[in-house]
Specification:
The structure holds two protein chains of two kinds. By secondary structure, chain A is an all-beta fold. Chain A contains no helices and eleven strands. In chain B, strands 2, 5, 6, 10, 11 and 12 form a six-stranded mixed sheet that branches. Chain B has a four-stranded antiparallel sheet with strand order 3-9-8-7, with no helix packed on it. Chain B has a two-stranded antiparallel ribbon with strand order 1-4. Classes of the chains: A mainly beta, B mainly beta.
Amino acid sequence: NAGVTQTPKFRILKIGQSMTLQCTQDMNHNYMYWYRQDPGMGLKLIYYSVGAGITDKGEVPNGYNVSRSTTEDFPLRLELAAPSQTSVYFCASSYSGQGSEQYFGPGTRLTVT
Amino acid sequence: AQSVSQHNHHVILSEAASLELGCNYSYGGTVNLFWYVQYPGQHLQLLLKYFSGDPLVKGIKGFEAEFIKSKFSFNLRKPSVQWSDTAEYFCAVNRPQGANNLFFGTGTRLTVIP
């Protein structure tokens, strides 16, 4: 199993550009999550999904959109990139809800200039 | 809002020294508690977790953590660190109800000198 994979690893965007961060898991997990980590800060939840077709906002959803058309994939969309979105983005998945271990991807380092 | 505090941003130890990393959380209800580790160039991975029962939990690689409810704390310990323990350590909590989303501390970078 590859676990949770994310692409790209690094990306530089100009202000106002759009992009999609890809996340795929091959563990048949129901729950998936997107976090961002700013320098010197802990990870904060952007969006999460409890199954295909179901998504919900986390702590810091503004400026992002997600979709979950399949169990495996959970892409994160930035429509109009802003410097405040410069961060490292982590995708995670878990089999179920409470108490279920979350498995993390390697992260995507995004710089918006 | 729920918050998680990790008191030490960067800890430097010599091999064989004992380690204790502090973690406090602000939520007053029942919580689940976790320690994650990120080795250089690797994914975040779970070290240990506490849901209920014995407040002293043991994890992988000789780590343990103690839940002290009265102090809202979940400190991570290891009696004797190794160079391979050099990593960033994150404390996290979630609540038994609702989504399984984690609230993370800011992390502690541990450097172990051979």
